[in-house]
Structure formats: structure tokens, C-alpha cells
Amino acid sequence: MRFARTAAVATALSTILVPAAAHTATAAPPSRTAGQTVTLPVRDALAELPVRAEDRTGYQRGKFKHWIDADHDGCNTRAEVLKTEAVVAPVQGAKCTLTGGQWYSPYDDRYISGPSGLDIDHLVPLAEAWDSGASAWTAAVREAYANDLGDQRALIAVSAASNRSKGDQDTTTWLPPAAGYRCTYVTDWVADKTRWGLTVDEGEHEALADQLDQCPNTPVTVTLAR
Predict the structure, then answer these.
(1) 180: Cβ–Cβ under 8 A, 6 or more apart, which residues?
(2) CA-CA distance, 18 to 39, in Å (whole number)?
(3) pTM for this model (two decimals)
(4) Alpha-carbon distance 88 to 147, whole Å?
(5) Coil/strand/helix, residue 219
(6) What confidence tens digit (pLDDT) does each residue in 31-45 have?
(7) Strand runs (DSSP E) across the chain, as ranges?
């Protein structure tokens, strides 16, 4: 079950959601600006994503600082997602240590008890984001991306097994094992790339289009981060 992030966390994170330096491969459409909210059918959103070759040159996971405590409440991004997405609330102890609780992992359609069996997945993996334009971002924008609590689609608590099976793969080589979740997954993927002004490569575009042909043309509403 997915819930909206708290306003306090979103407000705190928004202080580092600043536009990056101009970059022709990933720039948002000229009529759009950071903070603007757009709504359009998902297939139209996919059609607007620039198609570019990917480049992983220089990628290091450490260039995306993540699991920060953006609102300084003692709970980092991982804990915030776990608290928000729990179907049975965990007990929060000292230093935001979470125990107990239960979560639903939509990737593999299973319930998991206790936080230790969960990973927080970046829907569009950090390496994929780098390949798709984040290599040109400032460190602050990459940090904002890696800790994006402003859009509930960006980070999701899933079983560690499913997240590690996915790794840094895009939609050309990996979709959730739970077939009933795949329409949501690819729709959210397009929304997340739209939010951050990321590109898609030809194979990824084809894979997304093929999958979306089997799905409702759901309107997606996105607040642009850059």
C-alpha cells in the first residue's frame, strides 16, 4: 500500500531540488520549469521523453549521496519510506530503529514481516539515471534524486530478493516477477523519468511502448524536479 509522504519531509527535501546546469540531452521542454505540475496520458509522456544513447562513463554509486535525514527528525530516507509504506506499523525506537511491522512487496506479490528483509528500491536505478542524464547534474541534484520523498513513485520498499534481482537493469531486461504489477511499474518508470528530465535509449523506449500497449493509457501527474 502506498501513501503520500509527509509534507514536512517533502518541504525539507525541496530545498535541494534545484535546477541543474543546462544540458541539451536531458533538458526539460522549454515551456516547462522545475516545480511545475503536468498531467498527460502515459503514452504521451513516453513520447515526450528524449531518445538518446546511454553512457555510463565515470559512474560511481557514491556520486549519489543517499539515505540522508532531510528534515532532521532522526529518521533517514530509508526509514521514512519504511514508515510510510508499512501495512502494519513498526515500532520506532531510539535513533529511528524500526522493529516489527509488515510490508507488501508488489514486485513479487508477497508480504514481509520486519524491516530486515526489505530494500528501498530506486525505481529508476542510480546507474540508469546516470546513463540517462544525471552525469551532467550537480552533486546536490543527484542527492535530491537519490532521496526523492517528493514523489511516492520514486522510492519503494520491496523484498531484498526482488531488488537484488533487478539490480541496475532497465525495462529492456527486467520487469517485476508479479505480472499484475507490470503496468504500474512501467507507468511509474515513465513518470519518474519525466519528473527528473531523464532520457531513454532506443531499446528502453521500445520495451516501455510494448508493455504500455498492454496497459491502460493512464494519465500521470508529475511535479517536475528540474
Answers:
(1) 109
(2) 21
(3) 0.87
(4) 23
(5) strand
(6) 789 999 999 999 999
(7) 37-41, 91-92, 98-99, 102-105, 110-113, 118-122, 155-159, 219-223
